[in-house]
């Protein structure tokens, strides 16, 4: 008989359920506080510049959602793309990946989007796109395409540009009007890079 430390054994779908639970709990808190005091809700849950004023929103903004429809649509993607990732990694790595990519995608939206107009962001969609990117890049089909490109002598720079172009098209195709396009694109690219590097492999 052997034992493993909590969070160290791969193959469990528990982190997906825990992520969904966090999304529901934090979103409910966001809506409740917002019903009582909208400025306080923004201060506690919305990632916006300058981020140093409320750094905790790097985490709370990932799990908070603007409404039930926003929550449900992101939950579907987290389940579909998160299950194969969670099955192949540890609980700790899964949560770190979701939180890290979600926070980085949110920061990109706030910083880059903020160059045009000040913006705030909530939602796990950046991390959801990262999970999709990871699944797309960390599978045998992606490996086969990589070998084919190498066999045909396609320069790595061309491959990078092509992948970036495909990521942009996917982002535009699967992002509803008014959503955080920059966060979605950055999340997808982070997932693609992590997937090719097999970052979550144990």
Automatic annotation (TrEMBL):
Record keywords, A-Z:
Hydrolase, Membrane, Protease, Transmembrane, Transmembrane helix
Per the record, membrane topology reads: Multi-pass membrane protein
> Has the keyword Ribonucleoprotein been applied to this entry?
no
- List locations, semicolon-separated: Membrane
Return the EC number.
3.4.21.105
A Pfam family this chain is assigned to: Rhomboid
Any GO MF annotation of the entry = peptidase activity
What's a GO cellular component annotated to this UniProt protein?
membrane
Q: List, for all copies, the residue spans of the domain called Peptidase S54 rhomboid.
A: 55-196
Q: What's this protein's family per the entry? A: Belongs to the peptidase S54 family.
| Entry-linked PANTHER family | RHOMBOID PROTEIN 2, RHOMBOID-RELATED PROTEIN
Name of protein: Rhomboid family intramembrane serine protease
